[in-house]
Design goal:
By secondary structure, the chain is an alpha/beta fold. 44% of the residues lie in helices and 14% in strands. A 9-stranded mixed beta sheet has the order 1-7-6-5-2-3-4-14-17, sandwiched between helices. It has a two-stranded antiparallel ribbon with strand order 8-9. The protein has a two-stranded antiparallel ribbon with strand order 10-11.
C-alpha cells in the first residue's frame, strides 16, 4: 500500500502527534484546509452507536432523532476544533464538505450505498428496529441541509466568542456546492495569487490516501498533510506529513536529479509522475488492473520500471500533460511481467471457497513448492484472457473480430478515464459526465497493445484527440445524484414526490433495472467480504435526469436541499457592520460577523 511505502522510505517527512504527551505542541500555517466528511461520518457513528463494541452503552439512547442530529453537528464542530488545535491557521481556515460528485465517482458511491443498504435492511429485520441510514451523508438530504444551517449559526457564534479567530477568515464550502471536498480545496489553492500560493504555508487535513497525491499535485512550495495515524491504529493520534520533503525525496529516489539540473524536467513534473504511477495501485474512479490486485511491493516494482523508462529518455508527463509515447512504453514494459505477477498473487487456498480465483486457477499450472505448499508455476495467458473477458461481460473467443473490437473499446475507455483522473488531480475537473462503465479493467497486455497503436498516430489524429480531450458538461442536481446512488430501501432520503421513481415497478428507472433488490458479488481473488466487487447495473445519467424532470416539472415546488449553494466567507468586522441573525439553532443580536458568498 501507499502509506507503508511512504513510512518506510520517507520517515523523515513524518512527525507523529501524540495527544497524551504533545498536548502543547501546535503547528501554525497560513492556510489550513479540512476535507471534513470523515469527521462527519465519525460523529454519526458515535452518536447513533454504529460499529461500536457491544459492551459499550449507547450514551444517547434516550434522545430523539432531532436531538441526536444536533448532537452529531456539535460533535462534528468539536472535531474541527480538535484538528485546528493541532494545525492552526493564521490567515484562513477552509472547511469543505462533499457536494455532488462527478459521475465517475458516483459508480463507487452507488456500490457502497447498495452494499451498506443491504446490510442495514438485514440488521433491521434481525433486530426488529429501524437503524439510522448513514447514506443521509449525501448531498441533497435534509440531514445535510440541516448541517449547513447549523454551521451558518455555529461559525458566527464561534467567531464572536473566540478572540483568535477574529483575525482569521473562515471559508465554509457546503454540500450544496458542487464537487468533492478535497478537489474544491485544490481549486481554491490554485486560484490563490501566485505569491500566496508559492510563499504561503499550507496544510490539508483528511484520512484518504489520495490526499498525498493531491498535496503533491497542488504544486506549492510549502505544504503539509495532517492525517490520522492509521499505521499503528492509535485513536486520537495524528501524523503531520511534509509533502514538500516527499516531493524533494522523489526526485532522488526516482533518479530524476540530472534531468532537473538539465532543465528537461521540474520537481512538479516528478510529483505528477508519482501521482500517475499511483493510479495503477488504486484510485476512486477505476477498477484496478488485475496484475496489481494483491501485488506486494507494487509501488517498488512500478518505480523500478519507471526509472528504467526515464533512463532511456521516455518521460511520462510534462507540464501536466501525459506524454503518450513515454507512457505507452512504460505500460508495455510492465505488461511483460503480467503472467509472473498474476502467478505470484494466485492463491491455491483461500479463507473461504468464494475467495478462490477459479477463473485464474483453471488456466494455471500448479506445482508443489520447496516448502511443500502448492503454488501457481505458470499461466496459460491466452486461455485466461478469454475466460477473464467472458466474466467481464465480453462474450466470444480470442481472435473473434467482435470479441477483439470490444476489448479494444474497453481499453480505449479505460485509458480515457485514466487521463481524466490524472487531469482531475493535477489541473481541475475535466468533465462532470465522464464515467467508466465496466466492472473490470482490461488486462495489461491489451492496454499495452492499444497504447502502442495509439502512440504511432500523430497528436492531431481524431483517435488521439478523442481519448485526450473532454467536454466539461454540467454536474447533476443533488436529487439526481440521490436517484443515481441510493438503493430503493433508502427512498425516504428523497422527498415523497420522488419515492415512486424508486418503488413503483413500472417507473422508468425500475424498468431500466436501476434498483435491484439482490445483486451478485464477485469475491474471486479477494481476502475479505468488503473487498468483493458489487456487480450493479450501470446508470444512464440521461435517463435519471429525464425521470427526475418529469416529476419536478409537475410540482410547483423548490426544495431547499436541491438548490445549488455557494462558498461563504465568515469574517469579523470590529466596526462598520452589525446585523441580527436568527436560525433554528439560535439567534445573535448585533452580530459582527460578516458573511459573504464567494
Amino acid at each position: 500500500g501507499l502509506w507503508p511505502y511512504i513510512s518506510d522510505n520517507f520517515s523523515s517527512a513524518i512527525t507523529n502527534f501524540d495527544p497524551t504527551t504533545d498536548e502543547t505542541k501546535r503547528w501554525e500555517f497560513d492556510y489550513v484546509y479540512l476535507d471534513s466528511n470523515p469527521l462527519l461520518h465519525d460523529s454519526v457513528r458515535h452518536v447513533f452507536n454504529l460499529n461500536t463494541p457491544k459492551r459499550l452503552k449507547d450514551k444517547y439512547a434516550d434522545m430523539s432523532y432531532e436531538e441526536k442530529e444536533t448532537k452529531v453537528f456539535e460533535m462534528f464542530f468539536s472535531k474541527i476544533l480538535e484538528v485546528t488545535n493541532i494545525v492552526t491557521p493564521s490567515k484562513l481556515l477552509y472547511i469543505a464538505l462533499d457536494g455532488v460528485a462527478p459521475r465517475n465517482k458516483l459508480t463507487q458511491q452507488r456500490e457502497r450505498r447498495f452494499g451498506s443498504g443491504q446490510v442495514r435492511v438485514a440488521e433491521e429485520t434481525r433486530l426488529g428496529v429501524e437503524i439510522v441510514n448513514t447514506s443521509m451523508i449525501t448531498p441533497g438530504t435534509e440531514f445535510m441541509h440541516h448541517l449547513s444551517q447549523f454551521m451558518y449559526w455555529k461559525l458566527r457564534t464561534f467567531i464572536h466568542t473566540d478572540s483568535y479567530y477574529k483575525g482569521v477568515t473562515i471559508l465554509y464550502d457546503p454540500p450544496s456546492n458542487f464537487g468533492e471536498g478535497e478537489h474544491k480545496i485544490m481549486d481554491y489553492i490554485r486560484s490563490l495569487p501566485e505569491k500566496e500560493r508559492l510563499e504561503g504555508t499550507h496544510c490539508m487535513f483528511g484520512p484518504d490516501g489520495d490526499l498525498l497525491f493531491l498535496t503533491l499535485s497542488a504544486h506549492v512550495s510549502k505544504i503539509h498533510l495532517l492525517r490520522e495515524d492509521k499505521m499503528d491504529n492509535k485513536l486520537g493520534y495524528y501524523d503531520l506529513v511534509n509533502s514538500t520533503v516527499i516531493s524533494e525525496g522523489l526526485v532522488k529516489m526516482l533518479k530524476q536529479t540530472q534531468l532537473i539540473e538539465r532543465k528537461i524536467r521540474t520537481p512538479f513534473d516528478v510529483s505528477n509522475d508519482f501521482t500517475l504511477i499511483g493510479f495503477f495501485v488504486g484510485n476512486d474512479f477505476l477498477p484496478k488492473i488485475k496484475m496489481f490486485h494483491k501485488l506486494k511491493d507494487g509501488l517498488s516494482k512500478l518505480f523500478n520500471t519507471y526509472i528504467g523508462s526515464s533512463a532511456k529518455g521516455f518521460l511520462l508527463t510534462k507540464n501536466n500533460k501525459i506524454i503518450l509515447d513515454g507512457f505507452s512504453r512504460f505500460v508495455y514494459t510492465l505488461s511483460h511481467s503480467e503472467e509472473r505477477y498474476l502467478a505470484q498473487q494466485a492463491s491455491v487456498t483461500a479463507p473461504e471457497p468464494k475467495f478462490l480465483d477459479n477463473t485464474l486457477l483453471k488456466h494455471s499450472k500448479i506445482e508443489v513448492g520447496r516448502n511443500g505448499v502448492e503454488i501457481v508455476a505458470s499461466i496459460n495467458m491466452m486461455g485466461y484472457r478469454e475466460s477473464y473477458y467472458n466474466k467481464a461481460g465480453i462474450s466470444g473467443k480470442n481472435k473473434d473480430r467482435d470479441f477483439e473490437d470490444t476489448i479494444h473499446q474497453m481499453c480505449k475507455e479505460y485509458f480515457k478515464n485514466f487521463v481524466w483522473a490524472y487531469l482531475y488531480y493535477v489541473e481541475t475537473l475535466p468533465s462532470w459526465n465522464q464515467s467508466y462503465n465496466w466492472h473490470y479493467a482490461p488486462l495489461m497486455m491489451d492496454l499495452a497493445t492499444f497504447l502502442n497503436n495509439l502512440r504511432k498516430l500523430p497528436g492531431t489524429h481524431p483517435n488521439v484527440i478523442e481519448v485526450m480531450t473532454f467536454d466539461k458538461s454540467t454536474p447533476a442536481l443533488p436529487f439526481e445524484q440521490l436517484l443515481s446512488v441510493l438503493p430503493a430501501s433508502s427512498h425516504k432520503l428523497l422527498p415523497k414526490e420522488f419515492h415512486s421513481l424508486m418503488l413503483d415497478p413500472d417507473s422508468k428507472l425500475n424498468k431500466a433495472g436501476y434498483y435491484p433488490e439482490t445483486f451478485e458479488l464477485d469475491c474471486e481473488g479477494k481476502f475479505k467480504d468488503y473487498q468483493c466487487l458489487t456487480l450493479l447495473p450501470f446508470v444512464d445519467y440521461k435517463t435519471i435526469s429525464e425521470a427526475y424532470m418529469e416529476v419536478a416539472e409537475k410540482i410547483l415546488l423548490k426544495w431547499h436541499s436541491n438548490e445549488p449553494g455557494k462558498v461563504c466567507t465568515f469574517k469579523w468586522k470590529e466596526t462598520g457592520f452589525l446585523a441580527d441573525f436568527k436560525s433554528n439553532y439560535g439567534a445573535i443580536k448585533n452580530c459582527k460577523v460578516k458573511v459573504e458568498e464567494v
